[in-house]
Design brief:
357 residues, 13 helices, alpha/beta
Length: 357
């Protein structure tokens, strides 16, 4: 199951709207097939593993990180493929909460005479499939907030000056996070101040760049920005209010961006509406990278599921930009809503990963 989980993670960020599943076929103690959900969500992991196993699948055990599907979507049911392959036993990490499956895959396997065990690796599988689970149960993506902080809790210099806070190892880790996310989101303030690309620039993984999302209530993003100019290469979705200029929307869409209008709330875009639209369009894992006001808004709305805080030893000083704008950092680090999942040292920086309780 550990191998199946590792294989499944290869697909993170590439399989949406489908979950990134891993599967391993074992016969007589020997691995005879392995697979993971392919880019775009098809073929599914079970089909890949069974194809590699061939006739060796007969009488074998299939380890899979999520219950095999039982419904006809864009692919036939994996449960049927497992039965047809002659698998004798299936070990699933967790049941699929998707109402179209929800135990029916396991029931179909048992009805066909297969032994079915559920539970090994459940905690890790639930974490790996958090995006899929949240989308089918809550109608929104799993939200991961990333912050790079100075020792005194700042994310920028005086006057919003850009400061290189983290080292090379931490920046590489963030690019891996991008590659494993379906979409990356920033506010218009960050887009205007930094003119970012928001792509994955790890060598050999440039094609793994996530879809880019900008919260831009008034459509202030310039057509000449790097985000817009690259929209035909790496998709760009811009969320605006209903009142935003139709002419600006047309200009942006002519260059390849997609403008999505949502309602306003408390003087900004309604974040629950933004997440619902992302979910409806298939996004399961959303990485929120900036800036301070956007991070604070997600925290205040109770919409952060994980927070990755990269801390530097440098001090910026009282004139710097607070990590969560007007919200104290303890709204995250001291909140009973979060617990520390892991601590790591990444190069010269300390990483603390919080998860919602």
């Amino acid at each position: 199951m550990d191998l199946a989980l590792a294989l499944g993670r290869r697909g993170l960020g590439r399989t949406w709207p489908n979950p990134a599943v891993g599967a391993v076929v074992v016969r007589d103690g020997i691995i005879v097939g392995r697979g993971w959900t392919q880019a775009g969500g098809r073929p599914h992991a079970e089909v890949e593993a069974l194809a590699r196993a061939g006739e060796a699948a007969r009488g074998a055990t299939l380890y899979v990180t999520l219950e095999p599907c039982s419904h006809h979507g864009k692919s036939p049911p994996c449960a049927d493929a497992v039965i047809a392959a002659g698998i004798a036993r299936v070990v699933s990490a967790i049941e699929d909460p998707n109402p179209e499956v929800a135990g029916q895959g396991h029931a179909r396997l048992r009805a066909a005479g297969l032994a079915v065990d559920v539970g090994p690796g459940a905690d890790e599988a639930a974490r790996d499939h958090a995006g899929h689970i949240r989308r089918v149960t809550q109608g929104r993506p799993h939200v991961i907030l990333k912050l790079a902080l100075s020792a005194d809790g700042r994310i920028g210099g005086a006057g919003n000056a850009r400061v290189m806070i983290t080292g090379e190892a931490a920046r590489a880790r963030v690019h891996l996070m991008r590659a494993q996310s379906d979409a990356i989101l920033v506010g218009i303030g960050t887009a205007l101040a930094d003119d970012p690309l928001l792509t994955c620039r790890l060598p050999g993984m440039e094609s793994r760049s996530p879809l880019r999302v900008v919260l831009d209530r008034e459509l202030r993003l310039p057509p000449a920005s790097r985000l817009v100019q690259g929209a035909r290469t790496v998709p760009l979705w811009i969320f605006s209010s209903d009142a935003a200029s139709a002419a600006k929307a047309t200009a942006l869409e002519t260059l390849g961006a997609r403008v999505i209008r949502v309602r306003e709330m408390d003087g900004g875009l309604a974040l629950p509406a933004v997440l619902a639209e992302l979910s409806r369009r298939g996004i399961t894992r959303l990485l929120v990278e900036g800036g301070a006001r956007v991070a604070a808004a997600f925290i205040a709305a109770g919409l952060v599921d994980e927070a990755w805080l990269f801390r530097s030893a440098m001090t910026i000083g009282p004139g710097g930009v607070p990590a969560l704008a007007d919200l104290p950092l303890t709204a995250l680090t001291g909140s009973a809503d979060f617990r520390i999942h892991a601590r790591e040292t990444v190069g010269d920086n300390a990483l603390t990963i919080y998860e919602r309780t």
